[in-house]
Write a structure and sequence with these properties.
InterPro entries: Lipoprotein_NlpA. Pfam families: Lipoprotein_9. It is a lipid-anchor. It is a single chain. By secondary structure, the protein is of the alpha/beta class. It is built from 9 helices and 13 strands. Helix 2 packs across helix 8 and helix 2 packs antiparallel against helix 9. About 5% of the residues have low confidence.
């Protein structure tokens, strides 16, 4: 009889393990590196009893709406300034649970080999969302191309440009469409995931490139109501492993940088 409690406990643990192994979560990602990295995370998470299913979104707007609505349980595609902007504008109750990687944004051109070759009055496309568009303007400011009003923070717009010596014309486009703009402009700012999808090398091809240090580290986000659930820790711990870090460094060769 003394073994009966042990047997009961073993049965309960077996049942718990089966249930844990059956737990499935859907994670929203954008195509390219975010999806590729999560594919590397999946088998590690599975060892911890978490079945990860990836749902790809072609833009930056829908993943937070889907998360807030409960259509997915987490997403991995955005940085903190972008999430802050979405929460302020839309009232999402979404929280950060872990950092992922950084994608230094680049400015590319099919017409010019160097930024110095961009002519006066040249057209430069930038993403039309406040965070990524502002990020490019800050890059151009830091490179001495333009000057911005003081106190613009992380979300300047073209209206905040106070000096534009080359009289550049800024064309705002959806971030996902930026590679297609290359044929129509002198230069295009393109997020790394969309650049790699278009066959561009985010390390060698940009004529200007963002400093990889800064506030634009990407993250894993979940609904505030879920942030303390056990599966969240399994997911984050699975991402923050030496195996995933090695995958990022080997696969992307400096275009994507681990941030944990």
């Amino acid at each position: 009889m003394s073994f009966r409690p042990v047997l009961i406990l073993a049965t309960m643990l077996a049942a718990w393990s089966a249930n844990a192994a059956a737990e499935t979560i859907k994670i929203g990602v954008t195509p390219g590196p975010h999806a590729q990295i999560l594919e590397a995370v999946k088998p590690i998470a599975a060892r911890g009893g978490l079945d990860v299913q990836l749902i790809e979104f072609s833009d930056y707007v829908v993943p937070n709406a889907a998360l807030d609505a409960g259509d997915i349980q987490a997403n991995s595609f955005q940085n903190q300034p972008y999430l802050d902007n979405q929460k302020a504008d839309r009232g999402y109750k979404i929280e950060v649970v872990g950092l992922t990687v950084n994608f230094p944004i680049g400015v590319y051109s099919k017409k010019h080999k160097n930024w110095a070759d961009i002519p006066d009055g040249g057209k430069v496309s930038i993403p039309n969302d406040p965070t990524n568009g502002g990020r490019v303007l800050l890059l151009l400011r830091d490179k001495g191309v333009i000057k911005l009003k003081d106190g613009t923070g992380f979300k300047p717009t073209v209206l905040d440009i106070v000096e534009n010596p080359k009289k550049l014309k800024f064309v705002e486009v959806d971030a996902a469409q930026a590679p297609r703009a290359l044929d129509d402009v002198d230069a295009a700012a393109i997020n790394t995931n969309y650049a790699t999808q278009a066959g561009l090398d985010p390390v060698k091809d940009p004529i200007l490139r963002e400093d990889p240090k800064g506030p634009y580290v990407n993250l894993i986000a979940v609904r505030a109501a879920d942030k303390d659930k056990p599966w969240v820790k399994i997911l984050v711990d699975s991402y923050h492993t030496p195996e995933v870090k090695e995958f990022v460094l080997t696969k992307f060769k400096g275009a994507v940088l681990p941030s944990w």
